[in-house]
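cache lookup: miss for this entity combination. No prior model stored, computing from scratch. Input as submitted by user K.M.:
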Amino acid sequence: MDKQKLGMLVDVAKCIGCNACTIACKAENKIPEGAFATEIRQGWKGKFPNVVNFYSKIACMHCSDPACVKVCPVGALYQTPEGIVVQDQDKCVGCQYCVNSCPFGIPQYNRAVDKSFKCTMCMHRVSQGMEPACVATCPTGALQFGNRAELRAKAEQRVKDLKGRFPLANVYQPEEVGGTGLIYVLTDTPANFGLVEHPKVSATVEVWQDYVQPYAAWLIPLALLGSATSFLSSRLLTNKNEHGDHEERGDK
Amino acid sequence: MRLLSEYREDIPRVERFNKVFRITHWGHTVTFLLCLFSGLVLYANSSWSWMGIILGGNNGAGWVHRIAAVGLTLFLVFFFIFDYRDIINWIKDILRFGKNDIIFLSKFPLEFMGFDVKMPPQTRFNGGEKMNSIVTPTCVFLLVVSGYMMWFPEYIPVSLVRIAYPVHDLAMVIGSCMVCMHAYLGSLHPGSGESFWGMWKGTVREDWAEHHHKIWYDENYGDKADK
């Protein structure tokens, strides 16, 4: 893995579901009312009295091979050299293609301003040497920000330590989308935390964007060229038969 | 060099398209082209951005696209309300696709390049016009349906919305190709003759109608017409 890449570690064993990250994110990024760029999802497993509670911070996974960047028609979404997927709100035209193509269902659409938005890992803070707002505010240290490879090593060590208490503990960092910037330490299977176990970018998105869309529109100038050829050739041929007898011809 | 055939009132003329048909046709011409030019701003963002500047940036183009799209839909509704009978007749004529149309289509490339070709008698719409009548309205229908799906995705399952994007693009490409050919063949192609006046003024020269659409002429204005 690229040494330059940044990432975020979410340790659900330390998360108490306080939602401080959600609030910090909303305040920092001016997220509109009723919408979230990061939120805590809660789940339960088992029956009383043996109920297990799950909290997980859901936000953009920062895929290395992001579908949203691929489909964005105006280049509003792009990847920084650090592997973070950011968005230029000024460029967004609100077409919602990213909203509908993300395998994690992350980008949200804000009808009030006709734009979509998602977590940018607070790159405006990170570029000033600060941590993302959610990481800076997390009271339990469940969130860590830093070098992606180092965080991965930390996560693996942490899972090893947790195995005693949580036999199903695992590191969640799906490979399917080229690897992700978010690394989760989970105490149970991803499904229990509302996470997509095997994210898959829709085939219609991939085949269309990679192979058909860039070339298909050339058929239109081709049709125009055909018409222009016919325009010239038919007139040349008609002029040759000037004394012909096709009475309907326009140029008689 | 004459571009269009001369419009002559001194020669007997017969009606080819009624007013509703013509209003719908030209309404769709304007709204389709507006949708196409504004839509290409997103589809070919790198090479077509100059059109975005004319239409008020990406967002301006987006609004032109949506308003024109609603206009296009309203023209469809208008057509259905005021002249559903003509639509049925149109479909009936398409369903008459037969041997003569196949001969027409196979000989057409020669006619297209300007050779003088003898064609078998045609119904109201010849073989080529029948193909255009099938493909272009199908594309427009797909564009309208997939367009509204993408505009209001919150009411549609996400798997369908994902299909709507390529469907919209593909229908745009095929529809635009058909429109390019249709616009040329219906006006500047020497062989199209009176077709343009049929859609612009509503009438065509009687002798042209008999020569180019023999079956249609005979059934409606000739010996077989029930007067």
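stored under new cache key. DSSP finds nine helices and two strands in chain B.
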